From TrEMBL:
Source domain of life: Eukaryota
Subcellular location: Nucleus
Descriptive protein name: DNA polymerase alpha/delta/epsilon subunit B domain-containing protein
UniProt cross-references to PANTHER family, sorted A to Z: DNA POLYMERASE DELTA SUBUNIT 2
Annotated Gene Ontology cellular component terms: delta DNA polymerase complex
InterPro entries listed in its UniProt record: DNA_pol_a/d/e_bsu (IPR007185), DNA_pol_delta/II_ssu (IPR024826), PolD2_C (IPR041863)
Tagged with keyword Nucleus: yes
Family from the record: Belongs to the DNA polymerase delta/II small subunit family.
GO BP terms: DNA strand elongation involved in DNA replication; mitotic DNA replication
UniProt keyword annotation of Secreted present: no
Residue intervals of the DNA polymerase alpha/delta/epsilon subunit B domain: 104-313
Length: 361
């Protein structure tokens, strides 16, 4: 399309389907005594059995379901030869073959309100997404951005405000200022690009997983657009028949307490092969006490599995024995690194997008 000899770039679109219903807490009945008995049996009886069967194997991650391969000895004991994990879940959906490039932008750890937060970096990110930054080639790339995902920790408040006392008018203004600033910037994005925002451990949401969507009244400007969606954590959705699954990072950070793995991508791959998003819950990771279902079970292998609020960007393509193909992504904290992540839906390739505000003379 051209107007007065100038080419007007049309933004691309994609088909979106939200799959967060499984993570919504509605009409749940807590049966405390029943849950406590199951929890006690799993922790004490089963763990003792595992150690007695395999003394040299330490089940560092509680809650992981495994199978023991072996045979019964003459003395009546069970000799274990191998321990089998569930493996990658089946991958049902087949994504459409996309002929054109379409991009999804991931960002986490904006921490608006933090003393180290750089508003200029965030504004540069917004301008890039909306096509107000760079030359014609940059604007053409921006027109191919079809979705933005903010994976938790969007705001941060001064700890001194939460001292158990009533807040004065000045402190109340300090409490609302981070959200006011965040809403102004998100409104610019939502005006042109579909936007999903997930709660994180520092956001004003429930502590336990699954975290419920942030109240839309916190975003009076951006929530006026139907492109703005406040989502759960974990968050699951489909774009052009490509399934996404991700968290704001609590499940992966908690696994650090049990494992010596140096790469967070190893944690992502393990939870995928264990078919469970949060195996350490409720031991050391808070979660809602579901009694008749487990929303963290991964029944279908996603094409993209992302985790926010990590120290650095990383990606890994995992292939399964039945043709499963999953792109693992760790999203760094934008407040500390100035880095967002861009994923191409056409080939699942991703790269880091860095914004710097330092000038050299």
């Amino acid at each position: 399309m051209e107007v007065d000899g100038e080419q007007i770039l049309q933004r691309k679109h994609s088909h979106y389907h939200n799959l967060d219903e499984v993570f919504m807490v509605r009409n749940e009945v807590y049966k405390g005594q029943q849950y406590s008995q199951i929890y006690f049996a799993r922790l004490h009886m089963l763990r003792t059995l595992l150690y007695s069967l395999v003394p040299h194997w330490k089940p560092h991650i509680p809650g992981v379901v495994v199978a023991f391969l072996g045979k019964e000895s003459g003395a009546g004991s069970f000799l274990v030869h191998d321990i089998l994990e569930a493996g990658l879940p089946p991958q049902i959906e087949k994504p459409l073959k996309l002929g054109d490039d379409k991009y999804v932008v991931f960002v986490s750890g904006l921490s608006v309100g933090n003393s180290t937060s750089n508003p200029l970096q965030f504004q540069l990110l917004v301008d890039h997404i909306t096509g107000h930054l760079g030359d014609e080639n940059e604007q053409r790339t921006a027109a191919e951005i079809v979705h933005v995902v903010i994976a938790g920790n969007s705001v941060e408040f001064a700890r001194g405000l939460f001292n158990g006392q009533n807040l004065g008018s000045k402190d109340q203004a300090k409490l609302s200022e981070p959200f006011r600033e965040l809403d102004i910037l998100l409104t610019q994005i939502a005006a042109g690009v579909p936007l999903d925002i997930m709660p994180g451990p520092n956001d004003p949401a429930n502590f336990y997983l699954p975290q419920q969507p942030l109240n839309r009244c916190l975003f009076p400007g951006s929530s006026a657009y139907n492109t703005f969606r406040s989502c759960t954590n974990p968050h699951s959705f489909e774009l052009d028949n490509i399934r996404f699954l991700g968290t704001s990072g609590q499940n992966i950070d908690d696994l650090d307490k049990y494992s010596e793995a140096k790469d967070k991508l190893d944690f992502l791959e393990r939870t995928l092969r264990w078919r469970h998003l949060a195996p350490s819950a409720p031991n050391t990771l808070g979660c809602y006490p579901f009694t008749d279902r487990d929303p963290f079970v991964i029944e279908s292998c996603p094409r993209v599995y992302f985790v926010g609020n990590q120290d650095m960007f990383g990606s890994r393509l995992v292939k399964g024995p039945e043709g499963q193909l999953t792109q693992l992504i760790t999203i760094p904290k934008f407040c500390e690194t100035g880095v967002a992540v861009v994923l191409n839906l056409r080939n699942l390739e991703c790269h880091a997008l860095s914004f710097g505000t330092q000038f050299s003379f």
